UniProtKB/TrEMBL annotation:
InterPro entries: ATP-grasp, ATP-grasp_succ-CoA_synth-type, ATP_grasp_subdomain_1, Succ_CoA_ligase-like_bsu, Succinyl-CoA_synth-like. Its EC number is 6.2.1.5. Gene3D superfamilies: ATP-grasp fold, A domain, ATP-grasp fold, B domain, Succinyl-CoA synthetase domains. Coiled coil: none annotated. One of its GO terms (molecular function) is succinate-CoA ligase (ADP-forming) activity. GO terms for biological process: succinyl-CoA metabolic process; tricarboxylic acid cycle. It is an enzyme of class 6 (ligase). This is ATP-grasp domain protein.
Amino acid sequence: MDLLEYQVKEWFGKIGIPVLPSQRIDHPTDLKRLKIRFPIVLKSQVHGAERAKAGGVRFAETTIDAIAAAQNIFSLPIWGELPEVVLAESQYDANQEFYLAVVLDTAVCRPVLLGCKEADIDWESAGEKMHHVVVEQEFSPFYARRLALKMGLQGTLMQSVSSVLEKMYHLFVQKDLDLVEINPLAVSANGQVMALNGKVRINERAIKRHPDLAEMAAKIISRHTSTEINGILGDWDGVKMHGKIGILGNGTGSVMATLDLVANAGGNPGVCLNLRHAFLTDTTPTTFRDRLETGLKILEADKGIQVILINFLGSIPQTEEVVKVIARVVQQDNSELESQVVRSNGSKSRQVQNFTPLVIRLAGSEFNAARKYLATLKTHSDALLVVENLDEAVAAAVRLAKPTANKK
């Protein structure tokens, strides 16, 4: 999970990495109550790169100029993402700019400190200019000073840069991160260092160990229901696509296979959730039943989903409880449908479809009783279809996801 710049700088400020006076702007009119002095720079808060080239970074000398610039930034999509926040920050005169990072090297399974005396890095030739130090044992300030010396720094500047590197490493460890990056770390004429921009990438599997991170992830998911969430969270246990068929499965392999079959059959896969693992935002233990209930709510709340395809293969825990969850959802949808009957002149004239059809594939002897029970439920003809063959289930889901179908 990648944080936005204003979130990164909040973390930097708390741990003691020098950052400029700044203010979060949620609406252009917030600039009328600006607490920092002009001139300022306004930065679009999006996850996409190259925002400066796209027009997402603008300078302002007065309040009127700042409001006009903010209005343009808020209406400017960068790589398809509109900013919900703009960062207002003091301007800074830099004599030098460095690149610093702490990254997890999966090849050696150790953190690595990176440093370069150029901020605008050409990554094709970065090997010639980038210096690195592998943290092979328990961290000490020696590692940070060693990298600063490799970069050719001396005296007070070496001490300042190594101090920033130490704090970056402590943040890296405290929050279970994959990457902490400062690009650039600016140096003023009097030798003062300042983190002008930063990037933090959180290890998705560590999110549930940190309640504050889980809360941030939950907000991202709630705000990006119609975008590619996986680009931000990057996890195969929950993938957002732009199709009409939501998929629930009990394993990564079964979810991926179902997605491929839906696509090959001419369907459009939507949100895909693997219920075998806890969701990224779960901070307390959950059962398979809990995750099924949550998954169904997520899919039913998505107005783009027209059909929910459930593929359970082998065995699942709490089979009876899981079946009850499915039955309750289907019967609730059925009762809502009946309540939506439109009457004209005292007689029923038409029905308004107000449910999401469920196509359920249950394969395995343990599901025999479940299939029989679900078959006895009284529902609308398209509300529930239970089959044992996956190809048949996929074909039914594709058939029900018609372009003309209306979603509640």
